[in-house]
Design brief:
By secondary structure, the chain is α+β, with helices and mostly antiparallel strands. The protein contains ten helices and 14 strands. The protein has helices at residues 2-37, 100-104, 112-140, 158-162, 181-187, 247-273, 285-297, 300-318, 326-339, 345-373, and strands at 42-57, 63-77, 84-85, 94-95, 143-146, 150-153, 169-173, 176-177, 196-202, 205-211, 214-219, 225-230, 233-235, 240-243. The strands form six sheets. Strands 8-7-9-10 form a four-stranded antiparallel beta sheet. Helix 1 (2-37) packs across helix 3 (112-140), helix 3 (112-140) crosses helix 9 (326-339) and helix 7 (285-297) runs antiparallel to helix 8. The longest helix is centred in the first third of the chain and has 36 residues, at 2-37. The radius of gyration is 25 Å and the shape is elongated. Mean pLDDT is 81; it is low at 1-7 and 84-90.
Length: 374
């Protein structure tokens, strides 16, 4: 039993490190690439934090390295902090004025537009990476499509109470056209339990039914149970097929999927903030590790899909206007652009302190959630 448990834990940790390395590398490479394009000297590119494990220095003087704590990464750019000079007599080093040559490669001395572009590039490439992954998948392996036809109605469920029957085709929900059963799976969990108006087709005749989802504990597809709103219907077992799309169709589908993921995340966050949804869905590294392991067990396609979805989440979270995150820096730059000068050092310092406190509190809460539920 212990061997099985620890073997499973090692499997999850290894896949967690692989997944996080990929999405963090993509994110930081966005910052790095645009920084270099804008003439900023990049001193270090690190996957992980803390002491360096191994690495190398390229011909431009950038130290590429893997560090001990694999929970993120960073690109250290010249001029982000104070450049110090050693003072004789053992006194503390003091900030020094940069030379004209140093200012040309300093992040701090770039225009506000250039700095904003460098900061936005991290989350931006996370979205682009996911779009490209799904674009290639939809062109080669195909996009899973399930006909929106009911195969099973759970006894005693909201669907049964509303009069839905097997072989009913769902045409629309609350005015939104339903082309695939996957559309239903995406809409109902975000319904907040509000009544929904379904237009169905039964034996060639359209009917309108009202149905109120019910909260139920369901399998999340990764081997865990989560509470979510359900109707109590399932698709026909033989209704799913993979449809290979042409490049234009695949691009539209991948962009649409990425947009739907972002939109769904905002809906969930809004429900949590207003108290209409519990916070048990908030997770931390333990949950990501567990999902990484489950995705790897599902095969290469499942694993790549999970990496792409996590990349979307990383990009979105980093755009939140919280100091310490990319979105917080973009907020500072927007204020600087509107005022014509940056906020005072003291104001920025306090903003970063508050941002750090918020990020740390969220991380602790996520880990606590993981421990409770897993």
């Amino acid at each position: 039993m212990l061997e099985q448990y620890f073997g499973g834990a090692v499997h999850q940790i290894v896949n967690f490190v692989i997944v996080l390395t990929i999405v963090v590398f993509v994110h930081e490479f966005g910052h790095f690439y645009i920084a270099r394009k804008n003439g900023v000297r990049c001193q270090a590119f690190s996957i992980g934090f803390g002491p360096e494990l191994f690495g190398f220095t390229d011909k431009h003087g950038t130290r590429w390295k893997f560090s001990l704590i694999p929970l993120g990464g960073y690109v250290k750019m010249f001029g982000e902090g104070e450049t110090m000079q050693v003072v004789e007599g053992g006194a503390e080093p003091m900030p020094r004025e940069l030379t004209p040559e140093e200012k040309k490669v300093s992040f701090k001395h770039k225009t506000v537009g250039q700095r904003a572009a460098i900061v936005f590039a991290g989350p931006g490439i996370n979205f682009l990476f996911s779009i490209i992954v799904f674009w290639v998948m939809f062109m080669t392996l195909g996009r899973p499509v399930t006909e929106p036809v009911i195969g099973q109605v759970v006894e005693g469920s909201p669907a049964a109470s509303a009069g839905l029957l097997p072989n009913d085709r769902i045409k629309s929900i609350d005015g939104s056209e339903i082309a695939r059963f996957e559309d239903i799976r995406g809409m109902v969990p975000l319904s907040d339990g509000s009544p929904m108006r379904l237009v169905i087709e039964r034996e060639g005749i359209e009917q309108t039914l009202n149905i109120t989802p019910r909260m139920s504990e369901e399998d999340d597809g990764m081997g865990s149970k989560q509470k979510r709103w359900v109707l109590g219907i399932a698709a026909s077992e033989n209704a799913t097929k993979a449809v290979v799309l042409n490049p234009v169709q695949a691009l539209g589908a991948s962009v649409g999927f990425t947009y739907d993921m972002v939109d769904a995340t905002f809906v969930v966050i809004g429900q949590m903030v207003t108290g209409r949804r519990g916070t048990e869905d908030l997770g931390g590294p333990i949950r990501i590790a567990k999902y990484s392991g489950e995705a790897a067990k599902g095969g290469l396609l499942s694993f790549i899909s999970f990496v792409a979805i996590l990349s979307i989440n990383l990009g979105l979270i980093n755009l939140f206007p919280v100091p310490m995150l990319d979105g917080g820096h973009l907020l500072f730059y927007a204020i600087e652009a509107s005022r014509g000068r940056p906020l005072s050092e003291r104001a920025q310092e306090w903003g970063l302190r508050v941002g750090l406190a918020l990020v740390m509190a969220l991380m602790i809460f996520g880990v606590w959630n993981d421990i409770i539920h897993y």
